[in-house]
Known about the structure:
Keywords: Membrane, Transmembrane, Transmembrane helix. By secondary structure, this protein is an all-alpha fold. Helix 2 packs antiparallel against helix 3. The longest helix has 48 residues. The chain folds into 2 domains: 121 residues; 51 residues. 82% of the residues lie in helices and 0% in strands.
Amino acid sequence: MKWLLLIFSIFKPFFGSSSEHQMVNPIAEFKEMIKENAMKVVGVFAAASALATLFAAGLVIIAVDVGAQYDQNAYVYFSSMIMMGITLSVLSLIIAFGAAKIISNENTKPAPREVLQSVGTSHPLQDALALLIHDFVKEREMKRAQAEEYAAERSQRAATDERYHPSEESTHH
Length: 173
């Protein structure tokens, strides 16, 4: 759904009225979505690799012990090594299925209504606040520029007055 909103936000300015202004940057949204999903994919891949390694290690322990027992005694009995291999394999499976269940429950939770409304479109109050802040910043910049211009003009005027009207101290020497 987020992908559709992202694509829609790219094409919306071409079909919307000209008085609307777009506050969402689709490129930034796309980069953020990739960054969030990339971290999830890397985490899931690392966890799955670790669990698969534990499961395989358990099976290898079982196979090595069963093979050694059969070669030595010509029969297989239940030993602590076999029990450790079975425990390691079963534990990795329990963790994997538990994590899969948690992830599936997390994905089925409905997203908050405000989050879905804010993706792809901006709220009118956000636009008004952004315009107000923008207007305030521009006004401050304009006042600062006027103050600098006035100070430069005053210092230039003072320098020209000093040249044409020397002070009384300099004429009495």
